Amino acid sequence: MPQPIRIKDHEKDARLVRGRVVFGAIAVVSLICVLIARLYFLQVIQYEYHSTLSENNRVHVQPIPPTRGLIFDRNGVVVADNRPSFSLSMTRERSGEWQQVLDVIVEVLELTPEDRVIFEKRMRQGRRPFEPVPILFELTEEQIARIAVNQFRLPGVEVVAQLVRHYPQGAHFAHSVGYMGRINEKELKSLDPVSYSGTHQIGKTGIERFYEPELHGQVGYEEVETNARGRVLRVLKRTEPISGKDIVLSLDIKLQEAAEAALGGRRGAVVALDPKTGEVLAMVSQPSFDPNLFVTGISFKAYSELRDSIDRPLFNRVLRGLYPPGSTIKPAVAIAGLDSGVVNASSRVYDPGYYQLPNYDHKYRNWNRTGDGYVDLDTAIMRSNDTYFYDLAHKLGIDRLSAYLGKFGIGQKVSLDMFEESPGLMPTREWKRATRRQAWFPGETLILGIGQGYMQSTPLQLAQATALVANKGVWNRPHLAKTVEGERPKDENPMPDIILRDPSDWTKVNHGMQQVMHGARGTARKAAIGSQYRIAGKSGTAQVVAIKQGEKYDRSKVQERHRDHALFVGFAPADNPQIVVSVMVENGESGSGVAAPVVRQVMDAWLLDQDGRLKAEYASPISAEATAREE
């Protein structure tokens, strides 16, 4: 049967449509309310947050590195300045796929895969967001042109003009002024990120490192508006940086050159001091190197050549070279003997050519195997008589000997502003027991009395010990900086002066040192021939390899680098000291024959005028009558 036709219920359909319309309207209104609420939340409640975020996307703060302070010698000659240079920098956040951009840079500039590795390493170093990272320095005009032509392929890459450190005197002051280099990862963790934002080099050695805070200055800033691609549209605000302080050194470039010439290309060290002030007048360590190689990054090959050289050009012999002082320490030992009362100026010792401890068969040889007979203090210093000083050291004992030599700066850092200085070594009973687990033996005291054995000192320490004799015990720490922005450096921890019970003991030792140079039997009298001023000096020889008991030193049987070091210390004019000089010539063998002439040349360069005459403000020339009396 056919089904009945259903009658349409219009009222029901109308209700259904109205319900759906109402539901849809409610849904639409609800969504509009949610949207309005969200807009209110973002635009009103979080207004400050989003406005700041928007501003940060539009405005960036860029650091302006300060201009580094200059360094001059005492006469105003520039020894470290800043010169303009173009470098290639890259901002990772603006470069997108920055590794691909590096590939384009290598392609455009026709660089090597090794350069590509270096660039990536520099880009991965820690830095602040949006801070440009320099990846290539010292761009040539051709390289700058290639970058400009391909700029559309290099987002976030730009050529930046900046000042970089330059050392116009080259190797002359490499070991005193030092050099700057790129900030490494270790340094980056310890540096103030705000103060060093925008700065990519830091002082690594010498004055550059010690006075880094003064030389660096204070960073400046500028707020810039950028577009979506990071390009700077305009500068909104600028705070100028404060330049670093200028430093005037006590070094004299003419004296420095004279000292280098006196060494004559030999390995060694020369340091000259003003005993009245502690100013370092010359500081030479040979061979040297060009510090400009390190400023923007030295190549692996160039660094390996310097590091692996057998002559060690990177090694600062003045501050870090540790050598037995040899007989140069005898004036200080003589002061110890006089002040402690174990000897006086007229005390005599018989020298048969050797010394023996009571109840011991071992013979401690004098350099003069035939002996000097009876010698007093004056003769012992003049002849550098080992037997006398063996006996004096034995009478003093290790405790008093080490205590007195410590007062002269042996075994401790003596400088005021030399970062790399080694303290050396002044051995004691306690030191030997702690390091060697052995007791101290009497024979070890004897050889300390002539500057051998465990004792280790630097040429700077020997210069300071000699300056104390010249200055009659008054301590003035050696320092390289004469003024920092016009102010003299201050010694926050001054050393106590050496006060003797009888101040005339200084004069007695001074006279003995004059006899070394001007006496008829002085060991270095040849170096003083023709001198217009009196010199007080002392030679020394530092053994490199030991010689067996009873054997003589035979240079023909010893390799050149195993031969004795030659040392000499002195000051002049002897009655009014103006300069103290310490010289060490590696493997030079003879202190009086090799090192003493170097000292004389350095003194002449400082004390004589251009015509070769003694400067009027210094002591009068040696009279023929005085010389005749001594002979």
Task: Reconstruct the topology from this structure.
Layout: H1 10-45, H2 47-58, E1 59-64, E2 71-72, E3 78-90, H3 92-95, H4 98-109, H5 113-124, E4 133-136, H6 141-149, E5 157-166, E6 180-182, H7 185-190, E7 201-203, H8 206-210, H9 212-216, E8 220-226, E9 232-239, E10 247-249, H10 253-263, E11 268-273, E12 280-286, H11 292-295, H12 300-308, H13 317-320, H14 330-340, E13 349-351, E14 354-355, E15 364-365, E16 373-375, H15 377-383, H16 386-407, H17 429-435, H18 442-448, H19 459-470, E17 481-484, H20 504-518, E18 536-542, E19 565-572, E20 579-585, H21 591-607, H22 624-630
Parallel strand pairs: 2-10
Antiparallel strand pairs: 1-8, 2-3, 3-4, 3-5, 6-7, 8-9, 10-17, 11-12, 11-20, 13-16, 14-15, 18-19, 19-20
Structure characteristics:
alpha+beta, Penicillin-binding protein 2a (Domain 2), Beta-lactamase, 2 domains, 22 helices, 20 strands, 17% strand, elongated, disordered C terminus
Would you mind describing this structure in some detail?
The protein is an alpha+beta fold and 631 residues long. The chain has 2 domains: 61-249, Penicillin-binding protein 2a (Domain 2), CATH 3.90.1310.10; 322-630, 3-Layer(aba) Sandwich (Beta-lactamase). 37% of the residues lie in helices and 17% in strands. Strands 2, 3, 4, 5, 10 and 17 form a 6-stranded mixed β-sheet that branches. The longest helix is centred in the N-terminal third of the chain and has 36 residues, at 10-45. The chain is elongated, with a radius of gyration of 37 Å. The termini are far apart.
